[in-house]
Amino acid sequence: MARQLFWLSEEEWARIEPYLPRGRRGAHRVDDRRVISGIIHMLKTGARWRDCPRDYGPYTTIYNRFNRWSKQGVWEDVFYALSGSSGVVSTTRVSAAVDSTHIKAHRSAAGAKGGTSSRPLAGLAADGRPKFTP
User: Fold this and answer.
1) CA atoms within 13 Å, Cβ hemisphere of 27
2) Taking every annotated instance into account, which residue ranges of this chain make up the domain Insertion element IS402-like (predicted)?
3) Model pTM?
């Protein structure tokens, strides 16, 4: 079974390249185009970051770049360059969610097994009314 990897086209890359951070100190940054293609691939497939194909580079690099640029607001500018909309509904730059996560609950988490939990009250009088102590 052949994997379908995502790669940015020349036109897409030309549109988003001006919005990427430049002039950062530290170690030499790996190929941005490869990393961004990997990020988009992972977001499209919904897989774990650890399952990122090796063609994009180390999964830690892919995740760290996504996380760091999310905090800096870089993705809003990139999405606007590609789609004409940042995807943020609010007028203030609070946060933007790109990833969707769900948690599968255990089948017994809802308490379905064992029937209903309604029991008669222990403090009932003989005629069925609750007892009150003044």
Assistant:
1) 4
2) 8-79
3) 0.58
